[in-house]
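User: Can you help me understand a structure? I only have the sequence.
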Amino acid sequence: MKPYLNFSLIIKLVVLLVATSEMATDIYAPSLPEISRYFNVSDAQLTISLNLFGFAFSSLFYGALSDHYGRRPLILTGISIFVIASIMCWQANTFSVLLWARLLQGLGAGSALALGLAVIRDLFSGEQCAKIISKIGMVIALSPGLAPIFGGYIGSFYGWRSVFLIIVIFSIVLWLLLYFKLPETLIEKPQGDFSFITIFQGYKRLACNHVFVAFMMIQFMTIAGLWAELANLPFLYINDMGIKAYHYGYFAAVAVGSYVLGTIANQKWVSIYGMKRMLGFGISLVFFSRIMLLVINYFVELSPVYIQLVETPGAFGLGLIFGNATTYALESAGKDSGAAAAFLGTAEMLGGGIGVYLVAVFYNATIVPIAIMTAITAFINLLIFFYGMRSKKLECITISN
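Assistant: Let's start by predicting it. Here is the structure, written out as C-alpha cells:
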C-alpha cells in the first residue's frame, strides 16, 4: 500500500470514471426505439454492440500501455477520445455516423474499466481488493439504475439527442476532475524500452494462465447474459408490452436495487464464508432465476412486473459474482495486473457485444430469446466454476477461501 496517496479520493474518481462510461449506454437505452424510428432502421441495438466491441479491443492496449507508461496518461487519453465521440453522437445526422461515433466512444471508454481496476489493484489486494471492488460496484450500479430513469424523461420530452448532450457534459466534467485530481498509482514501472511485442508477451502469459482464463470466462459469460437483457428489454417493455419510455427506468431500478444488496452482502459475508463460496452462490442464483423465468413464461402471461420479480434473485447474485471473480482473476496475474485488467475488460465487453447481437438477431417480441441466452451463459458459468474449483491449479491463489 502507498500511504501518501489519498485512497478515498482515488476510489471516488475511479467510481466516476467507470460510472460515466457505463452511463453512456444506460442513459440512452429507453431512447433506442425512438432512434430506430428516427433513422428508419430495425437494428438500433447495433449502437450498443459496436460500442462494446470498441470498448473490448481498446482495453487490451490501454492496460498493457499503462503497465509501462502509467495509469494516469492513458486514462486521460481515453476520456479525451470519449469526449470527442460523445459530441459526434450528439450531432449525428445519419445512422452510419451514429454507429461510427458509438464505436469511437467505445474505443475511448475502454480506458475506464480496465484502468479503473488496475488502479484499485495497484492500491489493494486479496479480500480487501474484493471488498473495494464490491463497494465500487455498488455505487456504479446506481448509474444503470438511475440513468435510464433520467434518460427516459429527458429523451421523452427533448428527444434522443438531448440524452447524448448530457453525456457530453458529464464527460467534460470528468476529464477536468481526472486531470486536476488523479495521481499516478503505478509506482514501479518496468525497465527498458516499450514495444508492442511486450504487450503480446504479457497477453500470451495470461492466455496460458489457466487460473486467470477460468475467472475471465466467468466474467465473459456473466456480462454476455447481462447485456443481452439491458439492450433488448427496452424493446420488449416499450414496443411490445406498451410501457412508457420514461417508466422503463423504474423497472431497471428494481434489478439494480437487488444488485446493490448483493454487493453489500458480499462485503459483509466474504470474510466469513470466503470468496469461493460467495462466488458459487452468486452463479447459482443467476442460473436458477433464469431457468425459473423460462418455466414461468409457459404458464403465465408475463408482464414487466413479473419479469423483474423473477429476475431479482439473479440480480442479487450478480453482486456476488463481480467482486469475487474479478479479484480472483487479478490476483492470479501477478506482475501483469494492468494487462490482466485490460484482458478482463476486453472479455467482458466482447461478451456483452456478442450477447446483444445474438438476442437482437433472434428477438421475437417475447422474453424467450433473452431468457434462453441468459440461462445458457449462467449454466456455462456453473460448469466452469465446479470443474475449475477442483483443479489444483486454482489452489495456487493465496486468497482466503
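Now, to help you interpret it: The CA atoms of residues 117 and 341 lie 6 Å apart. The two ends are 22 Å apart (CA to CA). Let me know which part you'd like to focus on.
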